[in-house]
Amino acid sequence: MANEVYTATTVSNPKAPFWLGPASEHLDMLRFGLKMLEVLLSLVAFVLEETVSTCLSCSPLYFFEFVSCTAFLFTALLLFLLSTTLYSRVGISCWPKVDFLYTLLIAVLFLVASCVFAANNGKTTVETVAVVFGFLAMLAFIFDFFVFLKVKGNPFQGAKAPPTTNGAVPPPEAEKLNGDANGKA
Known about the structure:
Residues 26-153 form the MARVEL domain. The chain has helices at residues 2-7, 29-50, 58-82, 95-119, 125-152. It is mainly α. It has one domain.
């Protein structure tokens, strides 16, 4: 009998985590898909860069390797943390700021690394394709950055506090209640 009373009013938790998708207020479905795309593009750029057998000028290659590997590993970690409930156990309370700055930083690093590697490589097919995937990953990070701005706004602009009155009496209410204080209508 008790089950009959509670089953009609009980609803499932809409924020309950599921196997593939966002489980927190920090990551919606669009940004989850973008983070997955960033992980995949970074991984492909890294793997392609690793298949380069010889280099004329190795510094751009190593810088591109560093950026693509860092982007892959840290974006995968960020995606894992934000799409599960583990983000609450890490001890970071400013996830929007971390995500915002990280996405912008990796986009800029991919832009620089891809441009430098495109300018200084042996012009082999593998190097060219790695550069293309570097630019695609950079575009994914930039798109994610702008989606973040559109959906959540700038996380460094705090909520505007109501103006202080410095102890002054607040103005009277403009709209009166329907009845007076004695209960007469």
